[in-house]
Amino acid sequence: GDIVVSDLRLPDGNGIDLLRWMRKEGRMQPFVIMTDYAEVHTAVESMKLGSLDYIPKQLVEDKLVPLLRTILKERHTGRSRMPLFSRDGSAFQAIMKRIRLVAPTDMSVLIFGENGTGKEHIAHLLHDKGKRAGKPFVAVDCGSLTKELAPSAFFGHVRGAFTGADSAKKGYFHEAEGGTLFLDEVGNLAPETQQMLLRAIQERRYRPVGDKSDRSFNVRIIAATNEDLEKAVNEKRFRQDLLYRLHDFEITVPPLRDCQEDVMPLAEFFREIANREQECDVIGFDGEARKTLLTHAWPGNVRELRQKIMGAVLQAQT
Questions:
Q1: Same domain membership, residue 248 and residue 264
Q2: GO molecular function: any one (predicted)?
Q3: What's the domain count of the chain?
Q4: 264 and 300 in one domain?
Q5: Are the C-beta atoms of 129 and 95 separated by less than 8 Å?
Q6: Do the domain assignments include residue 206?
Q7: Residue pLDDT, tens place only, 120-139
Q8: 228 in the Ramachandran plot: left (φ > 0), alpha (ψ -120 to 50) or beta?
Q9: Is residue 274 in a domain?
């Protein structure tokens, strides 16, 4: 068979035991576990054993078929789906605890962390483990949005709304309907854009540029930043009222230098991905390479580690 879908509770055992047995027997088929929200901690165990995902039973209808399609498509194209849980270190497991706590809710979440720590990855986890899984996840790079472009980008515009608007355009809020809108580096938004967003979030309505009527929306908002937004508020660069709206719950992602125990597992993880993507067969790291990996400060965090490993695997082949 191509894929195994198993309930966590089975008449004569459980899905974890089945997965453990399969891996021991060298059977590496993709394995998806179905579970109740109350059993999420057990499902996370299954991730460590190599299951690809777990699906809360409440979401089976929405999420199972798209997930199976993705797995089959990636098997067909030879690309393997990246497991979402690849870090067992205590600091990251503490984050996973917070993710499991808040994912099933509609609370807005603000993710703090340096560049390259994987804030968007956390946002995806929050989306995938909540009730909006299977619905759109729309990521917005707030740093690239000028105050002139922002209204049309977020809310869309009607045809003829301004010079050059030859056709109507849907905005991010429309694209994310029913799902999650992820505001990456939200601290970079211009003051005018902050005010515009605040009004929309408060009223749960927006108006496309050039339109005569408002539209309501249903999205969950997750934001991320690498700066101290309280400081930005004190310096009048960020609106206090918008910060309150975005900050029902916070998750702080530690830099890689504070997660020493994750460095080698992540390096191995990226080595396997690099081998697959570049069709290489680098089998591991020698003592010198391990020492370098463990003593480097990783200012660019997980992103830098990934790039270094990708480059090293390629070079090892030449």
A1: no
A2: ATP binding
A3: 3
A4: yes
A5: no
A6: yes
A7: 989 999 998 899 988 999 99
A8: beta
A9: yes
